[in-house]
Amino acid sequence: MRPMKTIFDKIIQKAEMLNPSHIIAVGVIFSVASTIVIASIMSIIFHGRITSDYLITGIITSFLVSLMLIYMFSRLFSELKGKTEKTASAENYYHTLFDSIQDCVCIISREGKFINVNRTMCNINGYSSSDECIGKSFLENVVDGAEKLTDALNRAIGGEIVHIEYSSRVKDGAIMWWDSVFSPIKESDGSIKSILRISRDITGKKQTDERLNANIIDLRRARIASLNIMEDLRHEIFEHRKTEELLKERTLELEKLNKTLEERIKEEIDKSRKKDRLLQHQSRLAAMGEMISAIAHQWRQPLNAIGLIIQDFKDAYEFGELDKEYLSVNVEKGMEIVKSMSRTIDDFRNFFRPDKEKTEFDVKESIS
Q1: What pLDDT sits at residue 161?
Q2: Which backbone phi and psi does 358 adopt, to 5 degrees?
């Protein structure tokens, strides 16, 4: 039954392409001609010539056959007209439904070319008609997600229903985001020659998500900042408490200090006086040391002179020069040196006296 139905469908498809009146006329002419030819052949076979009986019989038969053919073709074309009207109605319904869908709907070939697109897709993308899209690659104007689209097409060709999100650039340059579903369109023999793609504009949703994510990030940053502030406040409270405790300790110490302040002041005054006396003593010792050092420095030359005078006595004695005059001169020199040494002691002693009075003196005399 299925091969016959297939043949009948093919005949109907061919017949739909012809004018019904032409088909009926050709059928009647063919039936009349074939009936007359068959009657003539039978008359020649049975009688050796064409007789009027067979010819009349053939005409009548051809008339009847023509009536049957007219009836059959009328029924056939009535069915064809009904099918054509139903097909036209279905196509009109399909196109109306296809163009009235608020989502972007398109049919894509296995090679990734647009076969058909609905009015919504043209309007959203800024095209005046579907002719601007048909024949173009479905990857044209894709901004983000070309690999995902190619994979979705291949999986849909394999029989899967695939859901993806991607972005593309419309005619005016704006970038839009789409939530798309790829579904295979199966033929009567089960093969897949085209893919149905339904895309929904989710640009607003994406922008809302981006703003929401930005708000979430801001909230997280604000939360982190508030946590940091709370931590700083805790630290400050802790430090404040520590400061209060330290202040209490210092207050107690200060109270104790106030109680023993007079005793400590007396102790410190005594310690200070002891230190002053010790410093004065040390200062005197140092001054005495300096004075002794200075006296020793000033006495070194006079002592050398006295030593030379004493040595000269020995030499004078050996050479017979030691007489009364010699003794008188050298004794006088020695006494002068001794007086000079005595004055040196007096000078240094007066220099370190704190009650020494200021007097005028001649620099030349002091130097000489």
Answers
A1: 92
A2: -80, 130
